[in-house]
Amino acid sequence: MADLRLQIIVASTRPGRIGRSVADWFQPIAEAHGAFEVELVDLAEVALPMFDEPKHPRLRDYEHQHTKDWSDTVARADAFALVMPEYNHGFNAALKNALDYLAIEWAHKPVGAVSYGGVAGGTRAWQLLKPVLAVLQMTPVVEAVHIPFVHDHEDDEGRFAGDDVMAEAATAMLDSLHRTAEALRPLRSDLATG
Amino acid sequence: MADLRLQIIVASTRPGRIGRSVADWFQPIAEAHGAFEVELVDLAEVALPMFDEPKHPRLRDYEHQHTKDWSDTVARADAFALVMPEYNHGFNAALKNALDYLAIEWAHKPVGAVSYGGVAGGTRAWQLLKPVLAVLQMTPVVEAVHIPFVHDHEDDEGRFAGDDVMAEAATAMLDSLHRTAEALRPLRSDLATG
Predict the structure, then answer these.
(1) Domain limits, chain B
(2) B96 touches chain A (CB under 8 A)
(3) What are B56-94's pLDDT values in tens digits?
(4) Which chain A residues are within 8 Å of B55, Cβ to Cβ?
(5) pLDDT over 50 (residue A194)
(6) Whole-number percent of chain A with pLDDT over 90
(7) 3-state secondary structure of B9
(8) 8 Å CB contact between B92 and B85
(9) Does CATH place domain B5-187 in 3.40.50.360?
(10) Which of A39, A64, B119, B144 is most buried, judging by how many CB atoms fall within 10 Å of its CB?
């Protein structure tokens, strides 16, 4: 049984988003891959307010229950797949907000992108995020699923279905997340039981 | 009388922020400069929720009253000074959220940074923001006020006071914002009365 946990984080929270549908396509691929216990984390359901902690997250001295809950959620993960949109060639605010709330909970964990958008398939948002991930001591993997013209892969009910190329990219990314999560294991603090 | 409006946008919204105090230092400098009618816009007071519009902002078909109000506010500006923190080497979520809500309201208007932080004085956040500003057709000016070790300039009551070098940088930035706002005037739509 897999003892590494992958969290699929749905970054878009707006009404009408396609992000949740992209995650619903990716999740069974991640489950079938077998290396991870898979957990879907939808930022629309997490519903964090705009960052409102008075102290720096590196102190891990959180005032609000929503922060403590978010800390518990992220602490139990070993790897992340960010299902992320591109807004104005950058990452969306809800994703940056969710990242900024915490610090050590993210550290020494690999992260991959399932990004989507128009012509660039969300690659600019992913690129802009890398300096932020570096500060959080996350390890972005180079294998990624980038989905250009995402609405071309939507059916009449708004369900997204990726093609074979995307599914192969997903598997390559999951392989890399698994290798990296295993390798970084000695660096990770056991925050979940700490 | 100045017929160009500068909005000083306070980007940090968290409790304990120093951003409002930095803006309170900058505002009288901007007023004394004389080129602009100066308006303080505090994102903590604007209090936008996480982006929740179903349609793309370029359509300018807003569903929510908070978006319509924000559109009216930004539309009446001719230039912006962003009083911005640096979170994880990037811009904070509240600022990206406020930018992403709108589109044409930002276009053809110059923008300068009054950024603050630790060793880098917020320069990394400002740098990371430039690709986003470019999509919005904003013109970042190179003159800027970057404040390293911002808490070294705070008194016992938490009031920030910049030094002479910062005040000179502010004046140079205001000069450049003024020249650029004048030059770009023919490109701006008159959204306020549109």
Answers:
(1) 5-187
(2) yes
(3) 999 999 999 999 999 999 999 999 999 999 999 999 999
(4) 16
(5) no
(6) 95
(7) strand
(8) yes
(9) yes
(10) B144
Of B24, B3, B20, give the one whose Cα is nearest residue B11.
Answer: B20
Could you give the CA distance from residue B173 to residue A52 in angstroms, rounded to a whole number? 31
Alpha helices in chain A (DSSP H): 19-33, 43-46, 65-75, 93-100, 123-135, 164-184
Q: Rounded to two decimals, what is the model's pTM?
A: 0.96
> Which H or E run includes A80?
strand A79-84
**What are the tokens at A137?**
């001591």
- Binned at pLDDT 50, 70 and 90, residue B194 comes out as very low
Structure tokens at A153: 């892969």
Match 């940074």 to its residue by tokens. B113
The CA distances from residue A93 to A49, A88, B99, B101, B158, in Å, are 11, 11, 10, 10, 28
Which is nearest to A23 in space by CA: A160, A140, A152?
A160
B194 in reach of chain A (CB within 8 A): no
Find the residue in A nearest to B135 (Cα). A88
Phi, psi of B46, rounded to the nearest 5 degrees? -60, -40
Would you say the ipTM is above 0.90? yes
Contacts of B52 in chain A (CB under 8 A): 13-15
Distance CA(A126)–CA(A116), nearest Å, equals 10
- Inter-chain CB proximity A51 and B16 less than 8 Å: no
- Burial category of B74 from C-beta neighbours within 10 Å (exposed 0-12, middle 13-18, buried 19 and up): buried
Sign of CA dihedral B179, B180, B183, B184: negative
Query: Where is A88: in which H helix or E strand?
Result: none
